[in-house]
Specification:
With 266 residues, this protein is an alpha/beta fold. The chain has one domain: HUPs (Rossmann fold). The chain is 36% helix and 8% strand. The chain contains nine helices and six strands. Strand 2, helix 5 and strand 3 form a beta-alpha-beta unit. The longest helix is centred in the N-terminal third of the chain and has 18 residues. The radius of gyration is 21 Å and the shape is globular. It starts with a helix and ends in a 48-residue tail after the last helix.
Length: 266
């Protein structure tokens, strides 16, 4: 191929800038949130109306036993791999559930290693929900390091939309939300319904970070090594920073932005 760079210098002609797609436009092939049978949606709402208040301050065991006995279909246990408390509890109280891990392509290597250990340790299948685009494809379409320019769009394409796609077989999901995590989560219900009509069940909602760590120690659970190195809350590597002692555990997430949530729970 001939080198025409002299043309740009001699005549002031500049090569055309690469035109990137607006990050508000999801890539072709992105699916709408998985539909849920109308009768199951109706039953889920009835369950929330009847039991949400009673379960608000219930123990993790009580909440999971309730889910096992009442959920009108299969449940997904969503795991961030920051810790494996949910995996341990679900192995005892929800043996028919599936484990679901949002494999964003940006995780710390240590997070992927924890996921691999979970896959080996527990009998439930570990489903790795991946975005439609790999990181190189996203960079090519939307520009390098979208997370640094529009983290909300990056989270939408790499977390929110994949979760919506992979939730199709399930009537509800188990989350690791805790009220102590941040002021935004202070009033999180133990039992709720998401925007697509699925049950959203949070058995750890009353736990403190200290209680979580105590459970990990007492049950000899898999430990994410970064939790011992100043990372009490762990997400994607580019958007997670260590936190000083005494600071909000989630203050290391999107530290350079006003953003505090990825969009899965808002």
């Amino acid at each position: 191929m001939s080198n025409n760079s002299h043309l740009f210098k001699s005549y002031g002609v500049k090569p055309a800038a690469h035109s990137f797609t607006d990050p508000q436009i999801s890539p072709p092939g992105t699916t709408e949130p998985a539909p849920l049978d109308a009768k199951i949606q109706e039953r889920n709402q009835e369950l929330v109306n009847e039991y949400a208040d009673a379960l608000y301050d219930a123990s993790a065991q009580e909440i999971l036993e309730w889910a096992h006995d009442n959920a009108p279909g299969k449940l997904a246990v969503t795991l961030s791999m920051e810790n494996t408390v949910l995996a341990e509890l679900a192995s005892k109280y929800l043996p028919d559930s599936d484990f679901l891990f949002l494999d964003t392509g940006y995780h710390f290597p240590e997070t992927i290693d924890v996921a691999d250990q979970v896959d080996q340790r527990y009998p439930q299948p570990l489903i790795r929900a991946k975005p439609l685009l790999g990181v190189p494809q996203q960079d090519d379409r939307y520009g390098m390091s979208l997370y640094s320019k529009d983290p909300a769009a990056c989270c939408r394409m790499r977390k929110v939309e994949p979760l919506a796609t992979y939730m199709q077989p399930y009537s509800g999901w188990i989350t690791g939300l805790r009220r102590a995590d941040s002021p935004v989560r202070a009033n999180t219900p133990a039992l709720d319904i998401d925007q697509n009509g699925r049950l959203k069940i949070s058995p750890l909602v009353t736990w403190s970070l200290e209680e979580t760590q105590e459970y990990i120690t007492d049950h000899d659970l898999i430990i994410h090594p970064l939790t011992l190195a100043g990372y009490p809350s762990i997400g994607c590597a580019p958007c997670t920073a260590p936190v000083a002692e005494g600071e909000d555990p989630r203050s290391g997430r999107w530290a350079q932005f006003t953003k505090t949530e990825c969009g899965l729970h808002t």
